[in-house]
Design brief:
With 77 residues, this protein is mainly α. The protein has a domain of 50 residues. Helix content is 69%, strand content 0%. The longest helix is centred in the middle third of the chain and has 24 residues. The relative contact order is 0.12.
């Protein structure tokens, strides 16, 4: 769980590094600063009962499906 959350946050930080004037070193600092919160969240998730795990985000899923077919407007070189 810790590595999954770290990977997810690293991907979000990667987008921020590309979208705003922020260097890669600053992105790594942000990730390092978030690791205690990541470890805490991973421990809470590991101990959570199955009834508390999961979610329902039909609109987010639908937006992801639509986004897949859109022409990209960012990260063009």
């Amino acid at each position: 769980l810790t590595f999954f959350l770290q990977s997810f946050i690293a991907n979000l930080i990667s987008v921020v590094v590309r979208a705003v004037p922020l260097g890669q070193s600053d992105g790594q600092i942000m990730l390092a600063q978030m690791m205690p919160a990541v470890a805490t969240l991973a421990n809470e998730a590991a101990l959570a009962p199955l009834d508390d795990v999961g979610g329902y985000a039909i609109l987010a899923d639908h937006a992801s499906i639509i986004h897949e077919t859109l022409e990209p407007r960012i990260y063009r070189t």
